[in-house]
Amino acid sequence: MALKRSIIELVGLQVVKIIAGTVYIAGLTSLIPLLPLVFSPQELVKAEYSLAAAFGFIFAGFLLVYWFSGSHRIALRALGLYTLVPGILAVLFLFSPHHMAKLFRLFGELPNLEQYLQSYLPNAWFLAGVYIIVGSFLVWLSVKK
Questions:
Q1: Cβ contact 96:117 at 8 Å
Q2: Which of 78, 85, 88, 145 is most buried, by CB atoms within 10 Å?
Q3: 9-13, 72-76, 102-106: which has the highest mean pLDDT?
Q4: Res. 68 pLDDT band, cuts 50 70 90
Q5: Angle subtended at Cα 30 by Cα 26 and Cα 36, rounded to the nearest 5 degrees
Q6: How far apart are CA 76 and CA 54, in angstroms?
Q7: pLDDT > 70? residue 62
């Protein structure tokens, strides 16, 4: 009976970690295109709900992982790995403006796409680097606990 309960708790924790990780990664990933807007207050006002939703997803994902794991170590490790995902994906997809333009054109014709990518990519590279550093730090911190 105790083994059955332990297995159910472990499976439940894994399901919650997957859901929380998805919410957390969605929040982190949605920050990448919003970063250039932070430097433009006029445009940021237009996207305030998107920015609030991104931070809300990050916070909700963090709370879910921490609450259901009950362990600092497990929560830090999971969040560190989840933080690495959008950083690594950003590095893979932001390799060149030309490839990004081709990828975005699959969704239809977008005016001024190359100009946007030229101004956006340096900020996105910066945020991808921050995600990789923060994710690595959280994983390292979980090992130290």
A1: no
A2: 78
A3: 72-76
A4: confident
A5: 165
A6: 20
A7: yes
Tracing tokens 């859901």 back to the chain, one arrives at 19
Separation between Cα atoms, residue 125 and residue 95, nearest integer Å: 9
Distance between CA atoms of residues 140 and 53, nearest Å: 28
Show the tokens assigned to 120. 């956006």
| The residue type at 138 | L
Q: Which domain holds residue 127?
A: 2-144
| Structural domains of the chain, count | 1
d(CA 106, CA 112): 15
Residues 6+ apart with CB under 8 A from 117: 97, 100, 101
- pLDDT (tens digit, 9 = 90+) per residue, 90-122? 777 766 666 666 666 666 666 666 666 666 666
